[in-house]
Amino acid sequence: MTQSPEVLGARIASRSGRRRFPTNIFGIVPFVGFAILFLVLPTIYLFVGSVQTKTGQFTLDNFAHLTRPFTAAAYGASIEISLVTALVAGILGFLLAYAVIAGGLPGPLRTGIMTFSGVASNFAGVPLSLAFVFTIGRTGFITVLLKSIGFDPYSTGFTIYSKIGLELVYLYFQLPLMVLIIAPAIDGLKKEWREASENLGATSFQYWRHIALPVLLPSLLGSVILLFGNAFGAQATAFALTGGFIPLVTIVIGSQLSGDTLGDKNLGYALAIGMVAIMAVTLVAYSWLSRRAERWQR
Amino acid sequence: MTGSVDRLHNELDELTRLTPHVRRDRPTRTIIGSWFLLLISIAYFALPLVGTLLFSLRDPGFAAYRDTLKDPQLYKTLGYSFLIAIITVIVSIVLLVPTAFWVRLRLPRLRPVVEFITLLPFVIPPIVLVYGLLTTFSKPPLALTGSSLGSDVLLVCAYVVLSFPYMYRSIDAGLRVIDIRTLTEACQSLGAGWVTIMWRVILPNLRVSILSGAFLTLAVVVGEFTIANFLARPMFATYLQLISGNLAYEPAAVALISFGITWAAMGVIALLGRGRREKINVAGAH
Predict the structure, then answer these.
(1) Burial of residue A259 (number of CB atoms within 10 Å: 0-12, 13-18, 19+)
(2) pTM of the prediction?
(3) CATH 3.20.20.70 holds for B62-272
(4) H helices within chain A, ranges in order?
(5) Is the previous residue joined to A218 through a cis bond, with omega within 30 degrees of 0?
(6) Left, alpha or beta for A38 (phi > 0: left; psi -120 to 50: alpha)?
(7) Which residue of B has its CA nearest to A118?
(8) Which of A235, B133, B140, B244 could bond to B127 as cystine, CB 3.0-4.6 Å?
(9) CA of A72 to nearest chain B CA: how many angstroms apart?
(10) Subunit contact B244:A103, Cβ cutoff 8 A
(11) Interface test with chain A among B95, B104, B123, B271, by most A beta carbons within 10 Å
């Protein structure tokens, strides 16, 4: 068995130490203890509650009840909004990042856009939803502007307090996040690959079809999955914008927390655990894909 | 023999004929497309800010700003939010720097385990985390939500958990580029204890990584709403949510202040990160 120098070093260090007992492990006890108390234990509480009846007997009914119309609709709405914003932000964010990095725009723009992406991807919640209400709400300035030229968007049935409105708001943090996480992959596209393919007579389409896209595919898929998780776990923005009008999973959990809306605490726990399960799947898929993507980013 | 040389010449001619054509054509089209996309994006990202600014100015004579700046609640919630954020950053540093250091030095085999724990907050969204915390800490033996101080403690602990992924990544990336083994051995041979090593050698060497993680945490915590709302803490975001239901123009002014805080924090991170390859500015607590 081969050992890394670090492992070997640790072995030697512990052997030359005074004690045989692996006391090294105590070094991470504070961190692990903290994580157990404030992260693992709360999740276990939710999990235990989700497989219990009101009187504390074991049951799987709570998970079966997730298929009831109300909770199923909540998952459906959450998944729909997350999927739509992840795909739209994924495509537009990739194009924007490509335009900034390799599209022939002036160099200083890149730093500016990357910094702004850092700001915008963290700009969410209450102020973000307010900003959109002030802009395309009923009295927002774009709405007023459009009305003055004879077109009232609200007459077409559009409203900012709807799914499409919420998706428009989510893009504000989804798109910059895509720009941030896809940028290293675009940086990894070597100029020599393009030159070599051109020297061999490849068209731009052939270069993308056979070289750039296959190289970028794991990064692109991984990023879109991460965006999906980012939108799926969001609560503040949707709550501030619609006040709970659109029953996303996070909104239903929130209203369950402030009052017993489901009429059943254990169903609420199952709802939360279902969410953790979906997030876990997205993270596993993401880390698998990003490990595949790393090959090209040396 | 001559035939294959001729073919080679033909191919070279073909290449020289093709290459300038490709070079001349592509960049122009790409550049126009790039500018078009950039301008659309700038419009999309700027308009909500313009809208907020215009809305805040609808109240004549900057009244929205004058009233907002006169409201003691603004300063109280801002002060409280910054205090909570600073405590969060300190606890997070005290917890994570020695852990990341120790794992690299003595427990390299546990690295995946520790990394996995720091990534858990991605899997457990804030709303689920606060649900779990309220379930766990609202009744004995771990009753914390009963008192105001207990809720503050719970709030800080929740934010420390939220800071795990990017704080740990930031610190670990900083540790990777310094030779901690040699540094530690040098310190020990000069008779330094662990506290001296951490405080006078490791921390100063990690300054930039720790600061960029700290400012990201600051930006996230000051704007955080979900956890603060359900723990009923008077944070800045819950204040904004409260006045947005009662007042007309002041929320626009406060929303702009909030954006300014995020901007300032990210500006500091960008300044710190100048000339460095890895940038850690992906958080995501919405």
Answers:
(1) exposed
(2) 0.85
(3) no
(4) 5-16, 29-35, 41-50, 61-64, 69-102, 107-121, 126-136, 141-148, 163-187, 191-199, 204-207, 213-232, 236-242, 249-258, 265-294
(5) no
(6) alpha
(7) B281
(8) A235
(9) 18
(10) no
(11) B123
- Among 1.10.3720.10, 3.40.30.10, 1.20.1070.10, 3.40.47.10, what is the CATH number of A68-134+163-294? 1.10.3720.10
Q: What does the pLDDT read at residue A14? A: 53
Does A131 contact B225 at a Cβ distance shorter than 8 Å? no
pLDDT in tens, B87-120: 999 999 999 999 999 999 999 889 999 999 999 9
Does B267 lie at the interface with A, CB-CB under 8 angstroms?
Answer: yes
Copy the structure tokens of residue B138. 């609202």
**Tens digit of each residue's pLDDT (9 = 90 or more) over B4-18:** 666 766 776 666 666
Chain segment B152-211, per-residue pLDDT in tens:
999 999 999 999 998 998 999 899 888 889 999 999 999 988 889 988 999 998 988 899
Q: Does B202 touch chain A (CB under 8 A)?
A: no
| 3-state percent breakdown (helix, strand, coil) of chain B, nearest 5 | 80, 0, 20
Question: Would you state the structure tokens that stand for residue B255, as one six-digit string?
Answer: 């929303």
Give the per-residue pLDDT at B280.
46
Query: What value of ipTM does the predicted structure carry?
Result: 0.86
Greater pLDDT, B275 or B68: B68
* Encoded tokens for B60: 């004549």
Cα separation of A227 and A94, whole Å? 12
